[in-house]
User: What shape does this take?
Amino acid sequence: MKFQLNLVKSILAVAGIAAVSAVSAAPASAFSFGNIDSSDNKSGDVYADNFSFSVVQDGLDKVLFNITNTASVADMFIGAVYFDTGSNSNLLSAFGVDVGNTGRVNFEDSGTANMAQSGNLSAWSTDFSATKTGAASNGVHRGESLALSFTGNYNNVVSALNAGTLRLGLHVQGIGRNAEYSDTFVSTISTSNTEATPEPLTMLAAGAAVGFGTMFKKQRARAQKAE
Assistant: This one.
């Protein structure tokens, strides 16, 4: 009887975790940046793979962009982020800045500001941008991330990124031995960039299920020996 009671409690616990996980889990895709071909500025090209971003579905009509800096160079930071939606002006709207940053990051909406080296990209036009406020310390330094939100359809956004009709640009500062250079990067086009990213609670539910399964077997074995 005690084993059956414990079994019921454990099943309810797993069901509770799974329910919370189902609510919190959201589709997510990861993307990378590449250098912009140019003859005037190649100082930061070797650092392109130090920056990445993910797109996460947030509800039915909102997407979150998390831009991350994993550079080993302490002085190098992201100072501005730019979005070009191409001919699809309805893809993104209701731009939100600083919606869940990590670190000391502090950015502000800078409208349709021009992006350095954009003339080396085909038909680039800034539709949205965000720039650090004030001092360099407010930029996205190593181990930090900037979170931006939009109203938009997750599947359409990911498809546009893969097709290159939606592009992100980064202006990175603090490059070089004396941190005197800056460079600009653009999101790359490749379906290999998109990989499902499990949410923490989804992984917790899976781990809990395995753990409870092992516990069930042990309790059942003890109950059978006691009979």
Observations:
- The radius of gyration is 23 Å.
- The first strand starts at residue 28 and ends at 35.
- Residues 27-197 form a domain with the Immunoglobulin-like fold (CATH 2.60.40).
